[in-house]
């Protein structure tokens, strides 16, 4: 039975294994280890387990992505290669089957994101807790670890309940994103003291801020399909395609947020290049405008643009582009000069918008950086430096794009780590 309250102060006991952090990776590891017969204790610093699961996906929880395991690997970039073994043991199909076996029916949305049919993240969390309960798992809530030490080949964990002794520890304490969920990054210091390398951390999948006041006035406007380029100075760093949202402080939505890590890792101010019509070449955009003028030439230029390209170019965005082209806002489309038309096309296909910061870890969905993946055996999730220490989830230097990729990495690495905790060998 899952314990909702920790034991009395001063309680110290030897456990087969202890998992620090009852989030996505920790819960999955606890389930796997207990189902295989291990006696595993989960320690959660918060009042309840899985708070970040409840917040994810707009409280809907994007469980995984509808794609192959290899596509999950690719989504994580060069660091993703390490995930092959973990995904082979518990991949996309396994994740879907796991939750459906617990009564959480899933659906695939047009973006490839997999959600519960109910659109309730609470259903996902309850499925994990039910499974852990059946496996005989023990969770101590409101029991933060204040220190982790390696002593004579074992581990000692300082907690408000006393010192806990164990032969194996799985660290699933997360990164620094959404610190109000309890993920404040203390795990990095523990593993650093044990000899691990910590790659510099920065917010990832985070909204970006801009100094441009005219952009902030567009708050609430969504562009459903854009091609976005992130850069610093004269150098383009990467591109992403997807929705874009203007906010009262700058930019959000999948495309800007997927690129955010490229800008937050640098102290320099950057920019985003916004192509509002990614399926059309500049010549095609201009031809469409010209073909529409005979029918709607008496409309303002902004109205004509919105009429021509429909929901791809909302009227307020069209008006902003006309203003940025320094064209009189009430000028009729049929009066537009060739130079003005070409300037509008240029802005439709490549507006350059300055970025001066981000929402920080408070608004970031994941953390970029963390424990160096070269120092972890991804077949077992055991540290190559400290025998008996295992790591899974966001504490690792792995961060993927929006779309359920990061949860899949958590399920997979947690499952692999849980399997290793139960095996009893430290190979």
Task: Give a verbal description of the structure.
The chain is of the alpha+beta class and 427 residues long. The chain has two domains: 14-203 and 366-423, FAD/NAD(P)-binding domain; 207-358, Helicase, Ruva Protein, domain 3 (Orthogonal Bundle). It is built from 15 helices and 21 strands. The protein has helices at 24-35, 51-59, 69-75, 84-89, 92-101, 121-134, 186-193, 213-216, 254-264, 282-296, 301-309, 315-324, 338-350, 360-363, 405-423; strands at 14-20, 40-43, 64-65, 106-108, 113-116, 138-140, 147-151, 154-159, 162-171, 198-204, 208-209, 222-232, 235-246, 250-252, 270-275, 351-355, 357-358, 366-371, 376-377, 382-383, 389-391. Strands 1, 2, 6, 7, 8, 9 and 21 form a seven-stranded mixed beta sheet that branches. It has a seven-stranded antiparallel beta sheet with strand order 16-15-12-13-14-11-17. A hairpin with a 4-residue loop joins strand 19 and strand 20 (382-383). Helix 10 crosses helix 11 (301-309). The radius of gyration is 25 Å and the shape is elongated. The model has no long low-confidence stretch (mean pLDDT 94).
Q: Measured on Cα atoms, how large is the radius of gyration?
A: 25 Å
Report the end-to-end length measured between terminal Cα atoms: 31 Å
What percentage of the residues does DSSP assign to strands (E)? 15-25%
Structural class: alpha+beta
How many strands? 21
